[in-house]
Design brief:
Bound molecules: guanosine-5'-triphosphate, magnesium ion
Largest sheet: 7 strands, mixed
Distance between the termini: 24 Å
CATH architecture: 3-Layer(aba) Sandwich
Number of helices: 5
Helix content: 25-40%
Shape: globular
Number of domains: 1
Structural class: alpha/beta
Low-confidence stretches: none
Strand order of the largest sheet: 1-3-4-2-5-6-7
Strand content: 15-25%
CATH superfamily: P-loop containing nucleotide triphosphate hydrolases
Mean pLDDT: 92
Length: about 190
């Protein structure tokens, strides 16, 4: 078996207000996307840990920003999901502001991983996020999640659709059930962190 791409990972801290966002210490990769898209699951898969980041079948599981220290030299940053209807407007605004503060403050953010559910149409909230990231000149790539739910043919069409829609961004298919796709994503992240 090939050596794991990331060897060691531990939970570091949860941050719930902008003032507490960590000062830059280690190179960071952050995971961003609508609620329930699979951010926490992807983090676990890429790090080879089952329950490091908490996952749930109901949206809105990850509240606050969770930092994971990886190989004692990188931070993996699990951001709250956006586009989740079943929370109050004030709470939604709070998470939105927290995400925005994080993205504006994090000077060692090397790459952002924007997750989009491969089964869904391109959503307004994702298109807006892409616009904003481009405007802020944040480096990011797009991960299409849950591709195990699609046939090979559907997957080809979906990748093409997203490539046409976001021609400037690297697009990777992903499934927590596919070792090869997990390794591809881990490698892409590792390269960006170094
Ligand atoms: N079939 C399949 N299910 C997945 C995959 N990735 C995640 N899921 C499921 O999708 C649900 C949501 O996953 P999470 O990782 O908790 O999603 P999240 O983006 O962190 O959600 P929030 O924290 O609420 O923003 C869980 O039931 C996961 O098991 C995948 O690749 N394939
Ligand atoms: Mg989560």
């Amino acid at each position: 078996m090939a050596a794991p791409i990331f060897k060691q990972a531990e939970f570091y801290i949860t941050v719930k207000s902008a003032e507490k966002i960590l000062k830059p210490v280690y190179p960071e990769v952050a995971f961003l996307g609508r609620s329930n898209v699979g951010k926490s699951s992807l983090i676990n898969a890429v790090l080879g840990k089952k329950n490091l980041a908490l996952t749930s079948s109901s949206p809105g599981k990850t509240r606050g920003i969770n930092y994971f220290l990886v190989d004692k030299k990188y931070f993996f940053v699990d951001l709250p999901g956006y586009g989740f209807a079943k929370i109050s407007k004030s709470e939604r605004l709070k998470w939105q502001k927290l995400i925005e503060s994080y993205l504006l403050q994090s000077k060692l953010l090397k790459i952002l991983c924007l997750l989009i559910d491969s089964r869904r149409d391109i959503m307004e909230s994702d298109a807006q996020m892409v616009d904003w990231l481009q405007y802020q000149e944040k480096p990011f790539f797009i991960v299409l999640t849950k591709t195990d739910k699609l046939s090979k043919n559907q997957l080809r069409q979906v990748i093409k659709k997203y490539q046409d829609f976001f021609p400037d961004n690297h697009i990777l298919p992903f499934s927590i059930k596919d070792k090869k796709l997990i390794a591809d994503t881990a490698l892409f992240i590792k390269k960006a962190l170094n």
